[in-house]
Every structure is written in C-alpha cells, then in structure tokens.
Amino acid sequence: MAMDTEKKVQEILTHWEEQRENLIPILQEVQAECYHLPQTALRQIANRLAIPLKDVFHVATFYNCFTLEPRGKHLIQVCLGTACHVRGGERMLEKVCHELALARVPATSADFQFTVHAVRCIGCCNLAPVMRVDQDTHRHLTQGRIRGILNCYRPKKATRQRRSRKSTGTGQVAPENHGDSPSEAA
Q1: Which of 18, 52, 129, 180 has the highest CB neighbour count under 10 A?
Q2: Exposed, middle or buried by CB within 10 Å (0-12, 13-18, 19+), for 21?
Q3: With the CA atoms of 112, 32, 78 and 181 taken in that order, what torsion angle do they form, in degrees rounded to the nearest 10?
Q4: With contact defined as beta carbons under 8 Å apart, do 93 and 78 qualify?
Q5: In whole angstroms, how far apart are CA 33 and each of 6, 9, 10, 55, 154?
Q6: pTM of this structure
Q7: Phi-psi sector, 134: left (phi>0), alpha (psi -120 to 50), beta
Q8: CA–CA distance, 186 with 172 (Å, rounded to integer)
Q9: Reading across the β-sheet that carries 131-133, which strands appear in turn?
Q10: Which of 41-45, 68-72, 126-130 has the lowest mean pLDDT?
C-alpha cells in the first residue's frame, strides 16, 4: 500500500513546479487523493520541493484542514453549538455514531468511508440541528433521517436504498424531507 501511495504522490508532483509556494496546493491534492497526509508523502514533497521535512511537517500540522491520521472518504461534522445543542445535536451525534459503529468522536468508520467530528458551530443556527457531510449541509435533522443521509454517501453496493446517489460536492443545503441525495437539493 505504501508503494501505491508513493506512486500517487509522484503523479501529483509531476503537475507542479518545484517551488516552495506550491507546498499548500500540493498538500491539498495529496490529502484529497489519500484522505490524509502519509509520512512517506511528506518526505517525497520535501525532497521534490527542496524544503526541509520539518517545514513541510510544520505546514501540515499548522492548518486544521490537513490531517496526518488516515480518515474516511467523507468528513461528517455534527454541530453541537448552542442552537444545535438545545435542538438535539447530541442525539444526532449519538445516532451517527450508532449507525457507523463508532464508540467515540473523532473517529473513522472501519470501512474508511466516514470520519466523524463534533464541532462547536457550523454557522447555520436557524437550521438546527445540522450536520455537514463534506460540503453538504443537512438541516433540521431528526434521528430518523440519519441513516438515509449516510446512505447517500455510501458506495452504491453497500446502500439499501435504490435511488441513492452520490453527493455533487457543491456545498448545497440538502432537503429536509428524507435522506435524499444532496444533488436533489433546490
């Protein structure tokens, strides 16, 4: 698997000039491909850009958008801010964890499809309780909708719903009536 990662990173590096200012976009592209920043990737990037490894590591650990730990394909953020808290945010988080067989958060599902984080505010207080999956915000959550929402992001063969579609990744606010795909949001 390490060899596969090295090949992926090498392919990414071929698209970039060997300049220090390309470090962050390279890290973003590697993380998008590998769902985290493996140590071998950080070494490859440092070597290619002729930057000390400690500097690459510093950037990778400074910004919270990067992670050194493997995470799932989809990032779930369940809001526990004040509005979401008083409207059942904790129960929504418990239901997400139950559906994904997670004992705690932050955590990643065994199939590496989902990583779940509790966050203090998503900035959608009037839509509470909310959770974000990747760039899609799901509003006015109920425990009964959680499974359907998660199924929209699962690989098709693992999904029980026939109409399930993948997210468009457009950052749309998802409909509140069912666990419908975010791509159907108005």
Answers
A1: 129
A2: exposed
A3: -80
A4: yes
A5: 12, 9, 12, 22, 18
A6: 0.69
A7: left
A8: 8
A9: 107-108, 114-119, 74-79, 131-133, 136-138, 173-174
A10: 68-72
Report pLDDT for 176. 53
Residues 95-131: pLDDT tens digits?
A: 999 999 999 999 999 999 999 999 999 999 999 999 9
> For residue 27, what are its two tokens?
């890290």
The pair phi, psi for residue 38, each rounded to 5°, is -65, 150
Task: Quote the mean pLDDT of the chain.
Answer: 86
pLDDT above 60: residue 169:
no
Residue 10 burial (CB count, 10 A): 12
Helices (DSSP H) in the chain: which residue ranges? 2-13, 23-34, 39-49, 53-62, 82-86, 89-99, 143-151
Going 164 to 157 to 36 to 96, the CA torsion angle's sign is positive
Rounded to an integer, what distance in angstroms lies between the CA atom of residue 166 and that of residue 1? Answer: 26
How many Cβ atoms are within 10 Å of 24's Cβ, its own excluded?
Answer: 14
**Backbone angles phi and psi of 118, in degrees to 5:** -90, 130
